[in-house]
Here is the input.
Amino acid sequence: MIPEWRDAGIPEGYGPCKLLYNPPSGMVIVELRSTAEEFLPNRIYIRHKDQPRYRPLKALQPMVSSEAVVTPLECPRLFYLSNKLSKRDQHYAGEWEGLYSFDIQTGTSVQLASRDSLSLPPPYTEGWVNDIVSVSADANQLYLRIGALRPEASAVDNQLVRMDMSTREIHFVSRLKGSFL
Here is the structure.
C-alpha cells in the first residue's frame, strides 16, 4: 500500500485503474481494483478537487462490484455498472446487476437498466451490459458493449449499442465480430 493512497482515503488492498474528472461538479472520480492477493470487488470513490480525501460513491456491499465508470463533460453525473459476485470453485464470477446513473449534486443513484428491464429489439430476447464505452458530453447518449441472446441460434452476439437517455431505447451501432474486449 502506497502511504499517499491511504492518506487520500484509498482503502488497503486497492489501487486506481481509472481516474476521471467531472468539470461541472469539480469532482475527481477513481475506479479502484484489487491489488491484494485475496480477491476484492471493484469500487468507485470520489472527492472534490479541493478536498484531500476520497469517499465511496455509495455504501459498500461485500460481494458487489461497481465498475466501468464514465462521466460527461457538461453535467454533474456519472454512470457505472454493478455486478453481483459469487465464488465458484476457486474463482469469482460476476453477474450483471444493473446500469446506474449517479447525480453528483444530489448524491442519488438511479438504476437505468437491469436484466429484467433492458429492452432489446427482436430477435434478441435477453441482454446484459458488459462495459460502458463512453457517454456524450451532455449525457443524452450512452455507448455500451452488450451481450445479446439470440435463442433461435443459441448464440450470444456482442454488440456496440447507443442508449438514448430520454427514452432508454437501445439502438444497435455494430455487431462486434471476433472482438475480444
In short: DSSP finds one helix and twelve strands in the chain. The mean pLDDT is 91. The chain has one domain: 3-175.
